[in-house]
Amino acid sequence: MTYRQAPFSFAGIELDGFLTEDGQTWTTLTTFCSVIKASRQNASDWLAKQDGVETLDVRVGKFNKAATAYTVDTIADYLDYRVKLGDHRAINLYSATFKADLERSIKEANGETVTAEQHEENRRVTLERLNYLTDLYDRGQKPEFWEEVKSKPDEERAAIAKISLKNLRRDMQMNSKYYKPETLKSKQDAIAFYQQEIAELCAVN
């Protein structure tokens, strides 16, 4: 199948894109993984379990290397899979995309034009903020890292506490049955800690 190169920026990352004569849009799964920082091995393992996946043989990069591209539908299925696993970065991408889409719809329905560049920048900024909070969470699901954000404004500290609490609760819902008693206790203590911080910060504001 013949195609033409259609590189694009998504969430602040340059990806390989392709357009075919039948109007389908394609990209490589390996480059998409860079958006949510999923391992290529995980993507390969997932692909091996899928049936009837459409593929397109392409050439990418300055060295014109052979690669395989997949339809946007397949990329979306992989993102859904990562979300169901509880992957915070995949969830963040969904949230950032929904926010950007909703804001664009509201503005354009009321006569305000939103360019593709503005839309993409809105998604990038939102995703960057959500991933920053996720990075804090990933570095420790306990209140110890709270020392790092004590100097930040109350509003930002409250936002960090809220997303930390949300992530902890989701983590507990999905994984609590697998935890040792001491791990379970530490996470319960962390939830109580963030609940108290949120109550105090919201009371101040």
Structure overview:
The protein is an alpha+beta fold and 205 residues long. It contains 7 helices and 7 strands; from the N terminus they run βββββααββααααα. The strands form 2 sheets. Strands 1-4-5-7-6 form a 5-stranded antiparallel β-sheet. Strands 2-3 form a two-stranded antiparallel ribbon. It is globular, with a radius of gyration of 20 Å. The N and C termini lie far apart (59 Å).
Provide the low-confidence segments as ranges: none
CA-based gyration radius: 20 Å
Biggest sheet, in brief?
A: 5 strands, antiparallel
Distance between the termini: 59 Å
Tell me the strand order in the biggest sheet: 1-4-5-7-6
Beta-strand fraction estimate: 5-15%
Average pLDDT taken over every residue: 86
Give me the count of strands. Answer: 7
Please state the overall shape, judged from the principal axes of the Cα atoms: globular
